[in-house]
Amino acid sequence: MTKQTAKSMTETARPQAVIYCRVSSKAQEAEGHGLKSQETRCREYAVAQGYDVAGVFPDTFTGGGDFMARPGLVALLSFLDAQPDQDFVVIFDDLKRFARDTRFHLDLREALRQRGASIECLNFKFDDSPEGEFIETIMAAQGALERKQNGRQVGQKMKARMQTGYWVHNAPTGYRYKTVKGHGKVLVHDEPMASLVKEALEGYAAGRFQGQVEVKRFFEAHPDFPRSKHGDVKQQRVTDILTQPLYAGYICSETWGIDWLKGQHEPLISLATYDKIQKRRSGVAKAPARKDIGKDFALRGFATCGDCGVPLRSSWPKGARRHYAYYLCQTKGCASYGKSIPRDKLEGDFGEIVKTLQPGHSVMKLATLMFRDAWAARLGQAKAASEATKRQIAETDKQIEKLLDRIMAATNDAVIGAYEDKITALEKTKVRLQDSLANRAKPKGTVEELLELSLRFLANPYKLWESGNITLRRTLLRLAFADRFAYHRLEGPRTPQIALPFKALKVVEGVKMRSGAGEGT
Predict the structure, then answer these.
(1) I need a surface site. Which of 127, 143, 165, 347 has the fewest CB within 10 A?
(2) Could you read off the pLDDT of 142-200 as tens digits, one per residue?
(3) By CB neighbour count within 10 A (0-12 exposed, 13-18 middle, 19+ buried), where does 312 fall?
(4) How far apart are CA 152 and CA 403, in angstroms?
(5) What's the pTM value of the predicted model, to 2 decimals?
(6) Any idea which architecture 175-281 has in CATH?
(7) Pairing of the two strands 258-262 and 250-253
(8) Are 161 and 167 a contacting pair, CB within 8 Å?
(9) Where do the CATH 3.40.50.1390 domains begin and end in the chain?
(10) Cα torsion at 223, 226, 227, 229 (round to 10°)?
């Protein structure tokens, strides 16, 4: 054998090595901390030992748990399986990168041994002697202990932060984290998603959305709303949003035993709105709105047939050249069954009725004085209600203190559990009372600011109808009328029941007219 041949065989017989690197988070990977430095150290070690590096397998995964859950390590084992005739050396820079769980450390050692691979660590010398195996097991156990201690410390810090009113988990849709001096990372509104979620929550509470499916469709109509990997909005995400107390400004966590703690973040909705949502989800509340109210027919669901009293339906039948808008009765057996009423005629007649609601100038001046008196009376009522709420809160605190004393004296686990459930219920009651008090105590503006829009509406309600805006028109229906509006296809409109404010103005106007007539006689 020539020297050249011997040299060639020596070169091809150089040991093959693979490098395994691991960091514990995506942030470390993104910031370049750990993986590159580990790979550089391991490559330097391979060169010093005369190894050829056949591959590098990185992982971004925490140290605990099954090693088969690590994509990089699974890829390494698959690489070894694909070359059963080749012996490899697996290099890593620290024993903690290998596994930080004693059982999985030993299982991984065995998995590599079965594949004929040896392991070498820059900071630890492996020894297959009984003493070496003992030391290795102790080192692995120490790594597992450190991991569990770190986990416990992180958990304690998370619980302590949540107990001070700060959310520590992933920000829910509509919020994002922002670092605020003196507070650390705090949830803040993430626009425009915050407004979108708020609209959905308030819409569901008010009955604008009849069910969770409609909320889901509302979200799907907005391309920027977060979607699953399949590109759709999951029903579970809708449920999570509707049941998340964070949107009402409160923190709840079964993991940390935290119930209805006032959060440090700004809520999207009130607690009252949140409660309405939960009642609607449980089927307690009834939706005030109809599913089939069309956008092109402001009186659909409000206008009723003058013969049978059933709400008129609406349609867009096609004529010779275009479509025409009609209201019609579809109640079988009714004299007006199948008979159509042009939309413009019905809504025009209704507009004439709205015009009659407009009071005179002198009546509005008197009404303004009446409203001011009513406002003062309401302020007094609000103050009395606030005092009553404060007393309820104080009484609730006393009940909680008594139950805590009973828990301290109790020895039966079932009794203690019952007391704890009662305390939880009282804490929720207290939170709602405090929220009610806070909202009642908030300044609502001056009487002039608050009455301006209302008086403007009362002075000329026809402006809302004349606008043609479907939302403003339906607002008018809710505010100005106490019941549905009956319309006969031949005889025209029936006299509608108007709402209390306009009824009161009519009474005032009648009194002034009689008073004026008396003065003239």
Answers:
(1) 127
(2) 666 666 676 677 677 778 888 888 888 889 999 999 998 888 889 999 989 999 999 99
(3) buried
(4) 31
(5) 0.49
(6) Alpha-Beta Complex (3.90)
(7) antiparallel
(8) no
(9) 3-150
(10) 120
